[in-house]
Amino acid sequence: PLLGQLSKKILDANPILEAFGNAKTTRNNNSSRFGKFIEVHYDAKHTVVGGHISHYLLEKSRICTQSPDERNYHVFYMLCAGAPQQLREKLCLGKPDDYKYLSGCTQYFTTSTTDKKIPTANKSKDHAKRGALKDPILDDFEDFVQLDQALSRLGLSGEGKLEIYKLVAGVLHLGNISFEDNPEDVKGGCKVSPSSEKSLTITSSLIGVDPSEMRQALVSRVMQSKGGGVKGTVIMVPLKVYEANNARDALAKALYSRLFDHIVSIINLSIPFKASSFYIGVLDIAGFEYFTVNSFEQFCINYCNEKLQKFFNDNILANEQELYKREGLNVPVIKFTDNQDVIELIENKGNGIFMILDEESKLPKPSFSHFTSEVHNSWQGHYRLSYPRSSRLKAHRSLRDDEGFLVRHFAGAVCYNTNQFIEKNNDALHASLEFLVQESENKLLNRLFASGSSASKGKLSFISVGSKFKTQLSELMEKLEKNGTNFIRCIKPNSRMVDHEFEGSLCLAQLKCSGTTSVLELMEYGYPSRVPFGELHKMYKSYLPPELAKLSARTFCEAMLHSLKLNNKDFKFGITKVFFRPGKFVEFDRIMRSDPENLKAIVANVKKWLVRSRWIKSAFCAICVIKLKNRIIYRNKCVLVMQKVIRGYLARKKHQPRVKGLQKIRAIKTNLIKMEEVANQLKKEKDLMLNQVKILYAAIDEATMKIKSNQSITPKQIDDLYEGVMKKIDQNTQLLKTKLQEQKNAEEQERLRKIQLALEAERKAKEEEERKRREEEENRKKKAEMEAKRKAEEAARLRQEELDRKTAEALQKQLHDEALRDSKYREQLEQERRDHELATRLASESNGQVDDSPPLIRNVQQEVSSLGNPNRLIRSENIRAQQQLIGKQKHDLSKWKYSELRDAINTSCDIELLEACRHEFHRRLKVYHAWKAKNRNKRSTMDENERAPKSVMEAAAKASTRVQPRQEINATTSVHRYFRIPFVRPNDTNDPGKKGWWYAHFDGQYVARQMELHVDKQPILLVAGVDDMQMCELSLDETGLTRKRGAEILEHEFNREWERNGGKAYRKIAN
What molecular function terms (GO) are annotated for this protein (predicted)? Predict the structure, then answer.
């Protein structure tokens, strides 16, 4: 029974710890907000003898603030939901939304049954509106009952449980105390707001303190100066509103955290152990955390996870691979990320983040911004630490550099907001509040704060939470390293906390971050089961005959495993152990422990394998002996080669000077061959120089014979022979160069003369070519200018035609709109008439009256055309052109007689009059030709002397509808232009081979020279003033030649053809 009670108490510890240390987060409804290490101790008989629980880092900030949709610790909601009415009255409990410390979420976890048991008055508005929260293992109503029963089983009396409930309720009521500025305090202090007086009274009663003393402790702080007597002067410092709020929250955190420590100590006292042979420990630490806002709690939790991940990497990955490497198994290396640099970043003794935080907390005026800057300065350039602006999350980029830092953990980068790091790292209360709780009438509270500190000093002492947690974590890691460790990886299937939903990417990310994929890869290539050779030999030698049992341990293991015909991939021999693939050692053990018949077969196979292995060893030994013999023979051959090389070296050393001398002298023959070739080029004294070359050949042969015949000749003598031969060669070479230079000088003079003549001819050719090039370039530019001019004229013509077209369209649109408006106006009049008749009939039937308003009057002003004055007549292009012509015309010669025109031309000096006569002449000539064409015989064809090509006449006919404005008469601006177009006579239209060319030279607007070239006819050359009746009477604008692409040519091209066909040079009239 005692052992059963002990096991029950160990099991009861879990719901108690979960009630006081677990809370709902957005990612887990029952998230552990503290770490715990539960030890279950056993004696030598494997019987439970006791246990012990160590806890780490309770998240105290959750007591005062929670994120949206997150709850405070479960015990607060259990108390509100499941406490009996009598207990509720003692604790003055209300519903969750009555308390500010529960503002994150005010809904209960209940089932449909227990939800009905909770009175409506005890439910929050949010719970009534949205319903209860659902979770398979959470029920605030039932969990309170289980909590109460578990506390009783731990040995707590009703009074003991009531003291605990009072502190829990006191924390809730403490959070409802608010503050406001005190206008009567000249030092800017604050006071408890009138609406919070009831909460102050209830809190004081629950924790057993005087309300006035509690009010004073919350709104002021007692300090003691150093001077003024033995103990100094006591100073009461008023607090501002935000300072009072911080003091209230600090008191709430201190009350709850010390209560949690007390509960853990009660559990440990209820499950003591005196003697323990071994124990099983279960470590439960909050997993890696990352939120939009991450503070000191997340920093500590993630630091703990970094340490555990390092422990996991070392034990599972690094040590296992080191064993494989040491045993020589040749298992592929599995790479994993080592996070030691992150751990050093946090816990380094010199400049770790914890150390920098503690140093900052000890300053007179600590500042989180200064702390953050120190962290960045100390670790500047470290890969694992960066500024918030480098975060992938946009919400973090708004933080300034001195407001946070980003740490790249093994599971991902987390951005920490440091504005509360200093406050959360200090686990001490200021003197006034600590003195208040120490003087409490509540016995439990007295025990919780029994250890006196620096209350008399009147200042806030510093107790580092980070250093304490680091020390606890180091002790925990020492425990883990001393014991065998197994790891359980919890993988969250989805982020919505719903069943039957699997998010593959989320699960894969968790597996990768936790290193599980590397472990699986190691398991794929590794051998998890391993046994030393000696142990395997002891286990199974009793199953085999004595002659086999006497074998060495390694040979025994090899014989057994190979004789069982197991797959070679299922096991591997190391240096000291044999390794098995998963499940293969069990298979091997089953075979070895099989029935005697199978054992006999195994023994036979072992003997067979031994014989075969020994024979193979003998064969390998023979092969090794043969290899040794071959190696000795090879070494003897190598000795001969070495002797040959040495003898050759000695011979070369002895004869090398003579050999080099012979090589140098023989190399001279190459120079003699070149000298002989040069001597053959000479025209004078050729025989003399060839004779000298023969003498040099004889000197070389003589020196060679001396070196060959005399083995004792010295290197100096060889050099003297070489120098003598070279001296003779140099003398003859210099003489040959002189002769050759003289010959070259003479040849060079002749060559230079020829080159000069060739250069002169080439210069003249280049000048001629340059002249032609410039002329062609000038012609090309003139043609380009003519083409540009043609395009400009064509564009102007097209713009004028477009303007005329738009004007005509506007006129047509105006007439059309006018017709539409007129039609619409008539329809409206008709509609008015019908409406009036209908109204008249209805009035006669109902004895009513009809409104005889005047009919709709047409708004004439709105119908004026957008073109301007409606009375304006839009004239055609021809009329406007004629008006322009009349306006510009100075002389009207249309009524002059031919005699008057002749006299004016012969006698007048007025250039404008002469030009007007010219225009009048061509006008009458056109009239004449038009009359002639109109009255000719229709059956007759066009005469041979057609005045212009058909295309020119057709262009003039098309352009006759537009009267071209007359140009101003100015003889000084007369322009000469030249044109060429294809020309076919009317009788030759069916024969394309008779196509000719029609040339025209325009002086101003009229033809000055005209020429027709035909394949089978003589050229026709016409000149103005002589052949006017046969020439084109049209003006340049009327012909449309300026609009024909490629029709205009240059003056020299026209003159070349004109003079080639017998035309006389044209004399232009001087200005």
Answer: actin filament binding; ATP binding; microfilament motor activity
